[in-house]
Amino acid sequence: MIFLSGKNCVLILANEHDYCSYAIYEILKDEKKNVLLIPERDFVSKTRFKWKFNNSLSGHLEYGSSSLIFSELSGVLMRYIGSWQQSKDVVAEDMAYVASERRAAFLAWFQSLLCPVVNRPVPKTILGEYPSSFDLFEIINQTGLKTHKTIITNNYQEARDFHKICGNKTIYSPISVSSKYLLGNDDIEKITPIIKVLPVSLHERLEGEKIELFIIGQKILIENSSGKTATLPKNIEEKIIILNQKLGLVFSKMKILRIKSDFYCLSVDNYPQYFRCSEELKNKINRELLNLLLENGGNLI
Amino acid sequence: MILVCGALPDTVLAYTCARLEQMDLDYLFLDELKYPIGYEISWMYDNGRLKGYIKSPSRRIELSDITGAYVRHITPNGAAIIPNATEEEARMIRNEYFHALDYMITILPCVVVNKSASQLSNGSKPYQSLLISQSGWRTPKTLVTNIPNEVKSFFNECEGKIIYKSISGVRSIVQRFKKDDFDKINLVRNCVTQFQEYIEGYDIRVHTVGNNLFATKMISEATDYRYASQEGLSITMEPTKLPAKIEKMCFKLTRNLGLTMAGIDLRRTLDNQYYCFEVNPSPGYSYYELGANQPISESLARLLSGEELPKKVK
Q1: Is A185 on the interface with B (CB under 8 A)?
Q2: pTM (two decimals)
Q3: Which of A218, B43, B112, B246 sits at 20 to 30 Å (Cα–Cα) from B176?
Q4: Is A264 on the interface with B (CB under 8 A)?
Q5: Listed residues B94, B113, B132: the one ending a domain
């Protein structure tokens, strides 16, 4: 058994198709840091786990020949998509129960860790949906950023009136599924057969300057896909960082829309992908993530 | 106007409706065994402002008239029979309608007992226990493990007085762990399991309802008083008074968990220490009201009617 120890110990819970998981792992290995990568599919089924808490926290996790002591963790990078919550490795009548016990145990464990966790799961990410757009809307509005007008209705006339108020430019989306369709002038008629059986969600379609940005801790990195450097006023940057914190996130991607002096937050992604970004931006994101994960263990790079 | 969402076979919900009627308070009952059939729902959200309506088979109410909502969803996605739909289509329709309703409840600007998001902490007992201890409460020493030998060490550390119970929101009967149970201890390899030191004392169930608090002393020999009759044991309940500091901590905990009503499970030890085990965000309060003759439902009805607003607890 290899005991990983020291304040530079980083745990990566990796999704096997995720650029971020393996990029960070490779850099840490090159830097001769203690790092343990556990593929998501093995996280629950192949680990031995002891977690004890009362006034203090103690315990360890064993995986293969490695053992990791919780109090010596420097940081955790969580890049899961949820497959570890399932219990496909267990063939039993009570599989659903086993899966729910696992979810509940590991939600609590991640919450208890004293080191940085990128991103620390909260009940909504593990036990429910996150973020439901309306939870998100309220929090966005509280920070002073704006959100687009939205209607949810199963009344065709209400939908039609809303479409008209919005200048005949709306976005239709199902309520509980992530997809969207742009509706123009006469397109509102197209939802007639839908609204007979389902409520619909329509958002006003706003036009302005679209800005995509990554937030890592206190740092904002702006995606520069148009070749033009987008900048944000200082007070808007502060609001974005507060929003990220209020959502319990350390690492996220947001879509912001600037219309004159108003800033709209269109979406928040708590599992950001950046493999398509420029090498320069990828390196900057990796560096910021490493600084966070190693903040207890000194500088890197 | 009060909005009540759920189903009448739920005796707690039926009890609440009976109290609203007895107090002559106006309410719309959204029957989740029937919704969305015969219902119309329409609401618009514009930067913090909500407007719209719900129309049931019998009447229409404006969202702006709702003073309080009492919500006890029967299943995550409703249970109505959808005519002319396959099972998969019906599931999708129920799911969309459920979210149309639940998202609206999430942003209702009035008292809601309780919002779905605030109920999630109860889905992980150790997670909730961390939040409870962050609110200043004593909580039992806890071990979560899938390593059999660790259970043996914990058993010895707690001098053989430990219990085990489910980790998730799945209801389980709290059981004392006995020496004989070591025969099956290897089973924990299959499922990470929660063990806790056994705290001696008696149980107190507290219900916080807005600014009111009702403490009920549970007198039973059973490890889990909820199942006393299954063990052939008796249970009696009586109202009790908590120290002011503990009452204040109960209100603070309710607020910290984002709740307006909570069922808080306490145990008072022989040396007058209070431990907090769990907080139920959708408490079956009627059992305690009937057992100890405490006016919990009346307090709930007043809260929902807008007669009082929850104070902020410092």
Answers
A1: no
A2: 0.89
A3: B246
A4: no
A5: B113
